[in-house]
């Protein structure tokens, strides 16, 4: 059932692998990954030692967030217009919620990165940066939940996957 590679699964796998490359310490011979444990079991994020801030701002913020978000908003605006005339509004609300959650979760970190890049003397509390990073990860968890609660077929599939993994874990533990 889960062994068939579809275009969607291949896209998700490629996205996951691409996203993990910098976190695993790409181009940084001095660290192993982006986290280290210091004395006292405090976790220190070393992501900025792996990725240069100019890359984060110009390529990542503008190339992978601002431009896609602008395109998504324009496309979804047109989709909303068509859906409103032809289909129920529930789907429209789901799409709007997905775009809103994307912006809510991703923009704070990128705004902080821009502030750090353009105004290094301004400073940024590490706790704020950690919350920003955490929010970007939360976005990945929110999308399936939004789809699950808003679309019946997706909800049934998500429950089926959940049962599959719970059953596989029970068998594995025995």
Automatic annotation (TrEMBL):
Its main location: membrane. Keywords: Cell membrane, Disulfide bond, G-protein coupled receptor, Glycoprotein, Membrane, Receptor, Transducer, Transmembrane, Transmembrane helix. Residues 1-147 form the G-protein coupled receptors family 1 profile domain. It comes from the Eukaryota. It is found in: Cell membrane. GO terms for cellular component: dendrite; plasma membrane; synapse. It is a multi-pass membrane protein. The chain crosses the membrane at residues 55-75, 95-118, 130-149. One of its GO terms (molecular function) is G protein-coupled adenosine receptor activity. Belongs to the G-protein coupled receptor 1 family. This is G-protein coupled receptors family 1 profile domain-containing protein.
């Amino acid at each position: 059932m889960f062994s068939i590679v579809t275009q969607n699964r291949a896209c998700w796998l490629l996205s996951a692998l691409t996203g993990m490359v910098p976190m695993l310490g790409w181009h940084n011979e001095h660290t192993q990954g982006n986290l280290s444990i210091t004395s006292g079991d405090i976790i220190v994020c070393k992501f900025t030692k792996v990725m240069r801030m100019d890359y984060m701002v110009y390529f990542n913020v503008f190339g992978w967030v601002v431009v896609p978000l602008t395109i998504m908003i324009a496309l979804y605006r047109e989709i909303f217009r068509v859906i409103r005339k032809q289909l129920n509004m529930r789907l429209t609300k789901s799409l709007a919620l997905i775009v809103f959650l994307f912006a809510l979760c991703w923009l704070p970190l990128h705004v902080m990165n821009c502030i750090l890049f353009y105004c290094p003397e301004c400073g940024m509390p590490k706790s704020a940066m950690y919350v920003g990073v955490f929010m970007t990860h939360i976005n990945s968890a929110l999308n399936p939940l939004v789809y699950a609660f808003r679309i019946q077929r997706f909800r049934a599939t998500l429950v089926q996957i959940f049962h599959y993994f719970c059953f596989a874990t029970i068998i594995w533990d025995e």
